[in-house]
Amino acid sequence: MSGEKIKAPRGTYDVLGEQAAARARIEELARTLLEGAGYERIETPVFEATDLFARGVGDSTDIVRKEMFTFEDAGGRSLTLRPEGTAPVCRAFIEHGMHKRRMPVKLWYLSCFFRHERAQAGRYREFWQVGAETIGSDDPAVDAESITLCARVLEQVGARGVRLRLSSLGSPETRAAYRDKLTDHLRANETRLSDEVRARIDLNPLRAFDSEHEGTLAVMETAPLLIDELAADDLEHFAEVRALLEVAGVPYELDPTLVRGLDYYTRTVFEFTSDALGAQSGVGGGGRYDRLVEQLGGAATPGMGWAAGIERMLLAAGEAPQPAPEVDLFVALADDGEETRRCAFKLLQAARSAALPAQMELAGRSLKGQLSGAAALGARFVAIVSGEESRLKDMQDGGQQTIATDTVVHTVLRAQRAL
Ligand code: HAM
User: Fold this and answer.
1) Which DSSP symbol is given to 263?
2) Cβ–Cβ contacts within 10 Å for residue 281, how many?
3) Range(s) within the chain of domains with CATH label 3.30.930.10
4) What is the per-residue pLDDT across 69-102, written as a single tens digit (0 to 9) for each?
5) What kind of architecture, by CATH, is found in domain 17-170+230-317?
6) pLDDT tens across 20-70, in order?
7) What is the CATH number of domain 329-418?
8) Portions of the chain given CATH number 3.40.50.800
9) How far is CA 356 from CA 187, 353, 410, 415, in A?
10) Lining residues, ligand 1, CB within 6 Å
């Protein structure tokens, strides 16, 4: 069989060297920040029962209608690669009886997700999110804490041009009444709407706020706004969230047209965008989901959370290539004899045991090639091993000394201490 090249599937990518370092940095800062704030790591399976998302995320959302990677297992069960993390975390909360823990339960994750979207810069079919969910409290302080933690992650990652849009969706009952009102408005202006919006008036009228179609935009200018219909307790909750954000010094813009692509939200919703991103400007977002746990079969338990995309954060940070890792010692071979090889390998192990970042020639290059390779790596010292004896070269000042191979590590450590 001929070896035709096989490429990675559309919308996926490989993580190579520098990218891996940048991602590791995000993971580390997220861990420090979120575990410091009392969040515990959770990882749920990559695939779940399809019904979890149909019920959790909502049958009428784009995610469930068009974007899920769904398949049948050998037993005929319908499974789906997770498109998001909130429904799985709530499933795990119920399954492990976490309601018995001290409330609220705070969980964070850094995981891959899958959506069959049109692939473009910043939009992938497999992507990664860091996210945090707080389950078991409806205190507005939880909303404000979630938003500020997301803001801090974005700030520490170095995302540029970040703005926060904030709104409240109230309760599902308020939303249902509002939906009827909005549907009436859309019906009354049906001829001016785009075909897409018109086709979905009954299914998801709120999505009309997302349209960029000229006629639709004009119709939406006079559309009723959900925020004007909120019940008194929802308004009070929202006012407190805003007051706490002001205390925390987190600027936001009220955006009553903010539509999130998931159905489980109640009350607070928010989205961070970055000017540094193109069309896919959402870098992180979330909100409150006070009915979700109940909807998935648990006892009525409020929840609030957010997720930020790793790839979009890297794009928004204009992630500069990370400097290559340091090499304190490069072990070169003066000859290709067996003794030299063994002494060199032993030296390499001794360097690593002493926590010295070290590398060794692995491709049989000439001594000249090895030295230029060591220089390209930015090695601080090169040991040119010739059996039991080595020539230790200081690459910064060019100084050289011939010493016993088994004293090289000690000599390098001493020289470093003197620096
Ligand atoms: P989401 O807004 O769908 O929310 O996704 C959160 C973030 O994931 C987005 O802001 C974006 O950075 C990233 N993202 C989404 N889709 C893609 C894609 N196709 N390619 C690259 N990045 C993407 C959620 O997923 C909710 N579970 C957030 C949440 C947690 N709400 C409450 N708790």
Assistant:
1) T
2) 17
3) 17-170+230-317
4) 999 999 999 999 999 999 999 999 999 999 999 9
5) 2-Layer Sandwich (3.30)
6) 988 999 999 999 999 999 999 999 999 999 999 999 999 888 899 999 999
7) 3.40.50.800
8) 329-418
9) 71, 7, 11, 12
10) 84-86, 115, 117, 123-124, 127, 129, 131, 133, 261-262, 282-287, 305-309, 311-312
